[in-house]
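# step 3/5: fold
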Amino acid sequence: MAQEKGYWRAESSTAQSITGDIGFSGEKMSINFTGFVIAQIRSLEPGEVSAVFDADSSGGGSGNLYRLNIPAAKKFLHKNTLCGTEDVQWMATYVVGRSLKIAFFSGPKMPVFTLTEIGNSTDLCGTFSYVR
């Protein structure tokens, strides 16, 4: 969790149009001034990070899987939601240097982080990029 901690500026077009800037502190993350409780489940393996974020698994950095609950009815910037009519229940993060990538997932089952599963996933809501 220490890697994600702090304030992050929206970099990707999806982050700029949906979440805006975000922040992590303790057991919470804030999106557009709304706090959500998060619980770290486990660290991601380099191959899992590569499958989700199309990142070079030898490029360093670290990833984590979190459990959270962001209701489908919660609207963010421009009245956008994170996952359409689905509640967001999982979040994968990847921090390398001054860059943070986040993938949000719906569904009660823990996401499987392989290229095949991610490619066929109906639970992947979207990926977002942030910088410091």
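# step 4/5: annotate
The chain has three helices and nine strands.
# step 5/5: archive (pending)
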